[in-house]
C-alpha cells in the first residue's frame, strides 16, 4: 500500500482532510506491522509480557518456502480481491453520482481526469460503458502495483533493517513531496500576484 504514496504522488497537506486521510491510510498499516513484527527488537521481554498480546512468536521465523511463506502470498491476494469487488460495486453503482462529479476528490476521479486528458475526446463526459472500463483499468493498475511490491513486502517481513529503512524512506518521501508541492503552489500564487510577502 505504501508505494501508492510514490506512484500517486501523495502529500501530507495539513490543511486538507483528503490528503491527510490518504497519507494516513497508506502509511499506518506499514508502521503497525513493523511494531508487531519486530516488537522483540523494540521492547524488553518484561514489557512484552505486560502487554499480554497473543501474537505469533516472530523471533523463531526464518525465511523458507513453508506454509507461512505461502500465507504471506495468498492472504494479501484474497484481501485485495475482496477489496476490489467491494470497491467496484460501490464506485460503479452505490456512489455512481459521486464518481461522475469531479468536485469530489478521489483516486478514481483523478484517474478519470488523466484518461480524459489523454483522450481525443477530452471535453466529453465519460459515458456509462467508459466508467466501467475506467474502474476496471484503475483496479488493474492497483493489482499491478500489488504484484510488483510482493518482493518488497516479503523482505519487510523477514528483514528488520530493510523494513526500518523502508519506513524511513516513505516518511522522508512524504516530507519531501509535501514541501515540493507547497513551493510549487506558492510560486504559482506569486506569479498570479495572489501571494503577498510580509516583512517581519
List keywords for this structure.
globular; mainly alpha; 10 helices; 200 residues
Brief summary of the model shown:
The protein is mainly alpha-helical and 200 residues long. It has helices spanning 3-7, 17-37, 39-42, 45-51, 67-94, 96-99, 107-118, 128-148, 150-158, 160-191.
Describe what this molecule looks like in 3D.
Helices cover 72% and strands 0% of the residues. It has 200 residues and is mostly helical. It has helices at residues 3-7, 17-37, 39-42, 45-51, 67-94, 96-99, 107-118, 128-148, 150-158, 160-191. Helix 2 packs antiparallel against helix 10 (160-191) and helix 5 (67-94) packs antiparallel against helix 8 (128-148). The longest helix is centred in the C-terminal third of the chain and has 32 residues, at 160-191. The chain has one domain (3-176). The model has no long low-confidence stretch (mean pLDDT 76).
